[in-house]
Amino acid sequence: MTPLTAGNTRVKEARKLHRRPERSGRRCFLADGPKAVEGALGAGVVVEVFATADAAQQYAGLLGDAAVTLVDDRAMGGLSDSVNPAGLVAVCRFLDGELPPAPRLLSICADVRDPGNAGTVIRTSDAAGAEAVVLAGDSVDPYNPKTVRASVGSLFHLPVVVERDPAAAVRRAQAAGLTVLAADGGGEVDLFGADELLARPTAWLFGNEAWGLPEELAALADHRVSIPILGAAESLNLATAAAVCLYASARAMMRA
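and the corresponding structure tokens:
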């Protein structure tokens, strides 16, 4: 089979999925790289796989009996958002992001704009055993190529729910029986002394990378929890703080 070029209609249509309006209109997105493609295949949402000849051979075991469309290197460069493409990109259908009926641990991200941070929180939530992630307010699109790549396949492992109203996301978590804990540098509860609280079914509420949580949103949480800063650092970045909080909850739940 002769590899498709960058000017091929199918390649050009797939390349349009780098734009959010196109993704929303077609309800499709791109999964870039072997981990993302593997997750998409496992989730059964792949529409089409594009690969260079070398990548198709290298990842033959991962691809199994999936139909693969070969493309040349220039076409792959346009499909991939990576500086150094792995040579494997899949067009995927949107996932059905719904909260499970009785979650014990989930993450709510309010106005998280950076796709790398959002993808890392999704990955960390997955690793810590959370059952869903909610991207609320003006948070980044979960299907942004950088978000998908930063999740390293975790986007396909747990529901990622989009909620326009952060306050509604908090109230919904509370209605499901979860204690909502706002990660707040000035919080009244010290994370290191909160094991009893952390053992409860919990929704962690994380704010924007630059300005954190708005006061009116933080006030809706059941408690505000601070991570002790033991050295001279001013603070932790969002993804690191989320990892510390989620694993503290996972540890407390395992010990309860």
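(Above: one complete record from the training split.) The longest helix spans residues 238-255.
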